[in-house]
Amino acid sequence: MLFIDFSSAFNKIIPQHLIEKLSLLGLDTSLCKCILDFLTGRAQSVRIWNSLSSTTTLSTGAPQGCVLSPLLFTLLTHNCAAMHSSNHIVKFADDMTVVGLISKNDESAYRGEVQRLTAWCKANSLSLNIDKTKDMVADFRRAQSDHSPLFIDGSPVEIVKSTKFLGRHLAENFTWSLNTTSITKKPQQRLYFLRRLRKAHLPPPILTMFYRGTIESNLSSCITAWFGNCTISDLKTLQWIVRTAEKIIGVSLPSITDMKEAEQWIHHQKKEAEQWNHHQSKQVEQWMHHQRKDVEQWNQWNYNQRKKVE
């Protein structure tokens, strides 16, 4: 698995190239022009206290922190797809991962995929940060051999035993102990502040609010992805934090299992809402189609009547 890191991904977007791809995707011309106008000729300055820098006009890249930027980058990379059936490219905004299945020690398809991806990045003016790009090999064979590194533009890619992906730690053996250790660090530190707040005689509702915002949110992050493969020891470590917080606040709190079930319920509700919205949009489209047909028939009838009068 190759975890790719781009150098200033959003800043490297060429608006003209993006608009060409949006046009090929079938976006309306007026919408493409609106996006091009949004990305080009942007005035930018920096204010620090009462000091204001001179204004610079930018016509490349997408604004950092803008809701539209991740979507535009996703559309820019939509045609970056795996060429070989044994490979798969996973994309989430500017995070990209190449996953390859290597059989019979034949790495040609995987290495070829990486070379094609490198060429695609150059053609689209995107730069890879080789120092932060990592390669992780999941090898469950009894007789394991040394793995030769990948090379991108003549530079070797570091082979790691674990890496951080979308905020979670992945290990080469697909266990979650390292992830559990990472998850519990911040909550353990914030238990100290929870104790300080209790000593300040804050009421339980305020303490519970602090717990949910700073501790439970960390414990439940991506819980549906890793909970099922956690060891009993890992679950006990996580549950210990919940029980400690309960003793400090003096109220009952949702267990780790409750958090997982709540996240699954929320995910299920989101899926149902998406399906309902899709169904409703289809009905609206059908209604509008019938309305247009009725208008066309009325216009045709009206035209025929005028012809008869003439």
From TrEMBL:
An example molecular function term from Gene Ontology annotations: 2-oxoglutarate-dependent dioxygenase activity
InterPro entries: AlkB_hom8_N, DNA/RNA_pol_sf, RT_dom
All copies of domain Reverse transcriptase, residue ranges: 1-170
Signal sequence coordinates: none
Matches recorded under PANTHER family: REVERSE TRANSCRIPTASE DOMAIN-CONTAINING PROTEIN
Protein name, UniProt field: Reverse transcriptase domain-containing protein
Native source species: Hemibagrus guttatus
